[in-house]
Amino acid sequence: MKPRSPRAVFAQKAALAALAAVVLAGCGAVKNTITPQPGTTNQIKVALAGPPNAFYIGIYEAQALGLFKQTDLNVQVVITSAGQDPVTMVHDSQVLVGISSEANVLLHRNEDQPVVGVAAIVHAPLQSISITEPAGGPSGGVGVGVGVGTGTTTTATATTKTKSKQSHTTTTATATTTTPTTTTISEPDASSWPAKLQQLLSSPGYPTYDGLVIVVRKGTIVDHAPLVRRFVQAVARGYRAARANPTQAITNLITEVPSLAPQQALETATLQAALPYFFPAGGKVWGWQREAQWNSFGSWLTQHQLLSNPNAITDASTNELLPGQGV
User: Alpha helix (H) ranges present in the chain?
Assistant: First the structure.
């Protein structure tokens, strides 16, 4: 057998090493730290579904801890204003990534907009999560979206009589006790939904759905899968960091968004209430979306004449960009 030249051997080893690197990159979370050359960092704009709050804690944790920079990303958070829809912004290429609800994704797909959920942030409708704000905190719903505060204030009056030889004195003292406030949340993008859907979701009996998901265009997955994968995995690490140290996560959130400082107690309560819904059941990786759930909720929307496009439900979500998924 004719021996191969050193150049051929080197080329073969290089090819095998490159292949191994590609396989490993797709089989788990990004763990390496990249030091990008000036001007080479990938830019990503992310549109939130509403004002900043603890529901987005993982995104702000990834920003504060430098997790985006470690994966060569420069992430700009876009805070939507009244009348702006994050899914519309994704579809119109105003932003690369949007944060919205499963319901909103399906409604947009019904209009032939090729948007896809690539990771679930909150595994429940936001309106099903009750937040108990400490007594004396800001009014219910501040910074969370649309909220309704319900609390009880009790006033007690006591009368004390003091007698002496010179005088007869009656003193009345009033004490006020305020109980904690329970805040219920409405979906931040619900204002753009059909009135019929808003009415249906205001009554019991609707199927569950993911309250917040990461959304991109289908073409973005085809053309920029590694870029979106790095973003999703950095956000996953951010949510895991928030679970490991919630107090520090709230501090980091307020450092990133100083306007939230006056409602620190509310954000802390929001995080405590939301933490169980940030991670899927059954030992699945962060961001896992259940196809059966999307199908069930989509079928329910169809039964109520809110979806008519047969392509609205099919392939509306994918887990291929999550840690350990895809290649």
Answer: 6-26, 57-64, 67-70, 86-91, 102-109, 195-201, 218-244, 246-256, 264-274, 291-303
